[in-house]
């Protein structure tokens, strides 16, 4: 794939915004200059003369099945018009979905649209502790069903058997590319895929216990036009050009100025990051009770406090909760969807107010929160830059005539000190 091209190699459809930045970061790490567009394009996607990959971020993970399928097919049409050679349906490395979908239905629809016989489903991301063995997904050394993902407010994952999860969503039989085959002599994995395809099995879960397995899977799937899964597999893709060709893939414009952190996720990882950051950074909580009683006043007071504490050397932190119990109590009275929307709207309003006050760097924690913020800011195109953590790149965009940098973090990603160290990647 080296050499000059006038179209991208990869077109990627992501089911949420942080998933989109995750796959974009993996592509950049593999040497692909990458652009990201938010939402179903309203007009043909622009030709980016130096782009090797184009990622489109949807909000389809928890959307009604029919809507998720329609939006994904619309994006596939736009990416095909760009001349993309291969396609990637990106979902979370913890297979976030419901018994009704949407991983299975979207995968089936993309297979039909591309007239492809089969695809692999490879959610694993070993660098972030997501592995698959005998079709069962692990988070670090814990089965998915025993991990904090079992408490996810929108997509609680209570079954670690991905074959069973996928079968419940799909009309097609589900196969497995097992670990033993991946460790067999070269060529065994491709032969196994061909055998399953000949049997009419179109969706194949790939075991993955380490990055060495990802390399085998990548070589065995080069004939497939459609890949699905997490972003781990993208990190072992062969580079699209010679290593010394032109500018580095992760070069973006950086914006000097104050920074702010908006934490809407209540995942275990984000709550730990918030607890760590409160020891070092100016911080203010937007309590659920206050947001329910008077969201406008709560946001206004938070912004007034933040403006008084802006400092180019130290970010301010606005967060929604210190313990999961606070959100669970709100869910019991409001419902999970409305409780989440309450936080998302508040933090999106905070983001707009902060940028208007001169903040130029935002760190957003939570996939739904990130989507709400980007939507509120009216951002449609992001350039992908260096990684603040595995799966969390810095991006650049234009807001009100100014360059701004955003790091959009999945709730489960990042080390405990992420909020206090994320800006180091931009220096």
Question: What would your notes on this structure say?
Answer:
- The structure is a single chain.
- The chain has 14 helices and 18 strands.
- α2 (65-82) packs parallel to α3 (103-114) and α6 crosses α7 (211-220).
- It has a 15-stranded mixed β-sheet with strand order 9-10-5-11-4-1-3-2-16-17-18-15-12-14-13, sandwiched between helices. Strands 6-7-8 form a three-stranded antiparallel β-sheet, with no helix packed on it.
- The protein has two domains: 10-236, Putative sugar-binding, N-terminal domain (Rossmann fold), CATH 3.40.50.10840; 259-426, Four-carbon acid sugar kinase, nucleotide binding domain (Molybdenum Cofactor Biosythetic Enzyme, Chain A).
- The two termini are 32 Å apart.
- With 427 residues, the protein is of the alpha/beta class.
What does this entry show, briefly?
Strand 6 (130-133) and strand 7 form a beta hairpin. This protein has helices at residues 17-29, 65-82, 103-114, 162-169, 179-182, 188-198, 211-220, 268-277, 288-293, 295-309, 324-334, 336-356, 367-377, 418-421; strands at residues 10-14, 34-38, 53-57, 86-90, 119-122, 130-133, 136-139, 142-143, 174-177, 203-206, 226-229, 259-263, 283-285, 316-319, 361-365, 381-389, 392-399, 402-409. With 427 residues, the protein is of the alpha/beta class.
């Amino acid at each position: 794939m080296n050499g000059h091209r006038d179209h991208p190699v990869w077109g990627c459809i992501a089911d949420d915004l942080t998933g989109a930045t995750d796959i974009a970061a993996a592509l950049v790490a593999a040497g692909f200059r990458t652009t990201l567009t938010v939402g179903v394009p309203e007009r043909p996607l622009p030709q980016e003369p130096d782009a090797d990959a184009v990622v489109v971020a949807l909000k389809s993970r928890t959307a009604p099945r029919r809507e998720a399928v329609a939006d994904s097919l619309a994006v596939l049409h736009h990416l095909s018009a760009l001349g993309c050679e291969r396609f990637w349906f990106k979902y979370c490395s913890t297979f976030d979905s419901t018994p009704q979908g949407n991983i299975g239905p979207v995968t089936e629809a993309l297979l039909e649209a591309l007239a492809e016989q089969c695809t692999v489903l490879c959610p694993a991301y070993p660098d972030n502790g997501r592995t698959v063995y005998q079709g069962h997904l692990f988070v670090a050394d814990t089965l998915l069903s025993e991990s904090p993902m079992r408490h996810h407010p929108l997509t609680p994952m209570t079954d670690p058997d991905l074959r069973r999860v996928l079968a419940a969503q799909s009309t097609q039989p589900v196969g497995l590319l097992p670990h033993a085959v991946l460790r067999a002599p070269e060529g065994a994995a491709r032969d196994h895929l061909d055998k399953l395809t000949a049997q009419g099995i179109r969706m194949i879960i790939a075991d993955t216990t380490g990055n060495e397995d990802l390399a085998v899977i990548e070589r065995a799937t080069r004939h497939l036009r459609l890949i699905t899964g997490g972003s781990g597999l993208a990190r072992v893709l062969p580079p699209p050009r010679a290593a010394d060709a032109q500018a580095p893939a992760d070069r973006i414009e950086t914006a000097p100025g104050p920074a702010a952190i908006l934490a809407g996720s209540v995942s275990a990882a984000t709550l730990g990051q918030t607890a760590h950051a409160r020891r070092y950074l100016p911080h203010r909580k937007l309590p659920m009770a206050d947001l329910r009683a008077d969201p406008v006043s709560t946001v206004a007071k938070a912004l007034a406090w933040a403006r008084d504490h802006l400092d180019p050397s130290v970010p301010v932190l606005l967060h929604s909760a210190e313990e999961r119990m606070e959100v669970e109590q709100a869910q019991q009275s409001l419902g999970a969807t409305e409780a989440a929307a309450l936080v998302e709207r508040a933090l999106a309003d905070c983001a707009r107010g902060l940028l208007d006050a001169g903040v130029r760097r935002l760190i957003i924690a939570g996939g739904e929160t990130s989507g709400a913020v980007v939507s509120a800011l009216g951002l449609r195109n992001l350039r992908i830059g260096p990684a603040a953590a595995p799966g969390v790149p810095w991006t650049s965009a234009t807001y009100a005539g100014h360059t701004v940098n955003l790091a959009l973090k999945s709730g489960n990603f990042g080390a405990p000190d992420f909020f206090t160290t994320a800006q180091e990647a931009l220096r």
